[in-house]
């Protein structure tokens, strides 16, 4: 706990990330590998779906969210180790060219079983950087521990 | 609703997927792009982490889960459109060479706002195909609709 608090992990702490643009080719490449469905693979096929056009796989947006959050080092020197995603909501479709940015807010810090380890609960919003709309909202339960000691 | 029921989406229906082996190079490639942390990138660096060795990013295992589930067509002809992941738990680390398979169970089917659309709640377990252990468990809320009519 002291280590975690020393790293500035106080409830209410907000972490903002850089932006990343989701390109059309990125969307299609991810979909071919992990989510091969018409709304993610091809403009023409996507037009006939409930989305009316090409949109990113939600798992792709979630993966880019992880990338941006990891780079922002929300737990200081400790890695970002997920225990649980309490709730992940896909709130808006993400078309090609969307500039993503993320915001993490620490909601709770509690002792974990082992000394030096804590559970950190963090709300993570993935935003459209141009409009400010929330695209995906989720709540992460993370295991925070001291650097490389485990 | 009738369409959904006609597609065999009854509560209790179980969908089993094929297996896919998570190779060491796949794990590192995914991590470089989406989760660049020591436990996912490099054997030596991973040894010093809480995992004691290289493990797949949880988002990678979740993405492969989506791939396997999409191929198994759990909603029949309708695509798999996520509204929400109610809870996703990372239950066991996933080292290189793990053979994954998934099992989806329909927990509930309820009418959505528009005619011909339904919400389907499905428990999805990602298993180690060799031991039967659950690696990730989650609950998906999906929007099921009639083919390409939206």
User: What is the domain tally of chain A?
Assistant: 1
Shape of chain A: elongated
Strand content of chain A: 25-35%
Poorly predicted runs of 5 or more residues of chain A: none
The CATH topology of chain A corresponds to Thiol Ester Dehydrase, Chain A
The CATH homologous superfamily of chain A corresponds to Hotdog Thioesterase
**Quaternary state of the chains:** homodimer
Order of helices and strands of chain A: HEEHHHHEEEE
Helix content of chain A: 25-40%
**Mean of the pLDDT scores of chain A?**
92
> Total number of β-strand segments of chain A?
6
Largest inter-chain contact set: A-B, 39 and 38 residues
Number of helices of chain A: 5
- Rg estimate of chain A, integer Å: 17 Å
**CATH structural class of chain A:** Alpha Beta
In terms of structural class, how would the helical and strand content of chain A be classed?
alpha+beta
Specify the biggest β-sheet of chain A. 6 strands, antiparallel
CATH architecture of chain A: Roll
- Terminal Cα separation of chain A, in Å? 14 Å
Question: What does this entry look like structurally?
Answer:
Two copies of one chain form a homodimer. Chain A is of the alpha+beta class and 150 residues long. Chain A contains five helices and six strands, in the order αββααααββββ. Chain A has helices spanning 2-6, 24-34, 38-41, 43-47, 58-71, and strands spanning 14-16, 20-21, 81-90, 99-111, 118-128, 134-144. Chain A binds chain B through residues 30, 33-39, 48-50, 52, 57-59, 62-64, 66-67, 70-71, 79-90, 138, 143, 145, 148, 150, and chain B through 33-39, 48-50, 52, 57-59, 62-64, 66-67, 70-71, 79-90, 138, 143, 145, 148, 150. Strand 3 of chain A pairs antiparallel with strand 3 (81-90) of chain B, so a sheet runs across the interface.
């Amino acid at each position: 706990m002291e280590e975690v608090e020393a790293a500035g992990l106080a409830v209410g702490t907000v972490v903002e990330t850089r932006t990343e643009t989701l390109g059309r080719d990125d969307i299609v490449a991810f979909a071919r590998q992990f989510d091969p469905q018409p709304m993610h693979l091809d403009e023409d096929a996507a037009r006939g779906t409930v989305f009316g056009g090409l949109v990113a796989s939600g798992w792709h947006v979630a993966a880019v969210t992880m990338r941006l959050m990891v780079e922002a080092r929300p737990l200081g020197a400790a890695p970002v180790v997920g225990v649980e995603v309490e709730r992940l909501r896909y709130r808006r479709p993400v078309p090609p060219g969307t500039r993503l940015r993320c915001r993490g807010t620490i909601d709770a810090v509690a002792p974990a079983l082992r000394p030096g380890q804590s559970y950190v609960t963090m709300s993570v919003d993935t935003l459209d950087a141009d409009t400010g709309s929330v695209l995906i909202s989720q709540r992460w339960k993370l295991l925070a521990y001291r650097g490389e000691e485990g």
